[in-house]
Amino acid sequence: MPLVAQEAAAAPGLEGYLVTYGPLVLMFVVLYFLLIRPQQKRQKTRSMMLNNLKKGDKVVTIGGLHGTILEITDDTVVLRVNDVTKLTFERSAVNAISASAAAAEEKK
Fold it and tell me: Rounded CA gap, 79 and 58, in Å?
């Protein structure tokens, strides 16, 4: 009988690896679905929003400034804040689109 116990202890097999590394793999899978995947989804929607910016869109910057896009290039945006003030921002400083030019015209 002691000989069988020594053979079992010498070769742990698949069950030993599953018990050892199973919780680690499970933790990675849970973290992927709870943290990594939603962040990638938010990043994708934000980059699509930044790429779809156009002249006339009413936007809100990260700092909370509301304005209308007058000029837009690959990396900068010129916003009209009031009748006189024009401010230049990085394109990545735009946080959200509050209304597009087409939607504003339909309301009038």
Answer: 9
